[in-house]
Amino acid sequence: MAALLMPPLRPRKDRVLRGTISHLTNLNDDERRQSNFSNVLGCIDCTHVRIQAPSDDEPSYVNRKGYHSINVQAVCDFEGRFTNIFANWPGSTHDSHIFNTSTLSNYLQTNHRGLIDGVILGDSEYACRPYLLTPYANPTERHQQKFNGCHASTRSVIERTFGILKRRFHVLHSEVRMKPEKVCRIFGACAVLHNIALSRNEPLVNDDGAGVRLDQPVQVPAFLGVQDGRNTREHVARVFLTTEIHILLNTLICFLTFS
């Protein structure tokens, strides 16, 4: 509970790296086609940046793995570009709480009209919302299992992007010996430079990998609050499986017709 009650580091809005927040609902068709789902705008997750123990409110910075960090929320597109980041919370803060306090969450709650506007994909730490789809906790039917498989493969882009970011900027791998507020700004600057590097096709410098550790999944409890996006998820899962079956049937019909 402490993580849910603590104040943020400093009142701050999300940092939008491509246009305005509404950019998330205006991705082009090429970007959308790279997803296993239709109308997926991007993927959301949080990553921890290790910091030295701060002098103020030190316990709130200790994360689930037992070290001091800030917990940074980010959204990326399917090319690995950051479209939105929110670096403002100590390491013990739950991902869902960070999202609920973000400008992005407020924008989606206010402006999202349904699947026509698309959705973002998140893991089970988030509440399932009409605009933020999470995997089924206990998939028993085929369409649910298929949904979870495609959800995982699509959402993996955000984990890969965090890994690439931390390989590009090794400062984000080691313990940053600065005040938390400055570390938040450093992360934002690195994200901007990462996007610029992608736009200019800058290669990722290879080294011997020493000290490079990509983000590892942390076992955390799933979100247990209100889940008002479950009907949307069920609709998407059923439509997705139905479409797949139709494609298989049409392929079979064509094969039988011309064989």
Overview of the molecule:
This protein has helices at 2-5, 29-33, 95-100, 103-111, 142-168, 180-199, 230-258, and strands at 15-16, 40-50, 69-76, 82-90, 119-121, 132-133. With 259 residues, it is of the alpha/beta class. The chain has one domain (2-258). Helix 5 (142-168) crosses helix 7. The model is unreliable at 1-9, 18-35, 208-224 and 245-257 (pLDDT under 50).
Number of strands: 6
**SS class:** alpha/beta
Q: State mean pLDDT (0 to 100 scale).
A: 78
Number of domains: 1
- Contiguous uncertain segments of 5+ residues: 1-9, 18-35, 208-224, 245-257
Largest sheet: 6 strands, mixed
What strand order characterises the main sheet?
A: 1-4-3-2-5-6
| End-to-end C-alpha gap | 65 Å
What is the count of DSSP helices, taking H or I runs of 4+ residues? 7
Strand fraction: 5-15%
What Rg, in angstroms, do the CA atoms define? 20 Å
Q: Order of helices and strands, N to C? A: HEHEEEHHEEHHH
Estimate the helix proportion, in percent: 25-40%
Assign an overall shape.
Answer: globular
Top keywords for this entry?
hydrolase, six-stranded mixed sheet, HARBI1_dom, globular, disordered C terminus
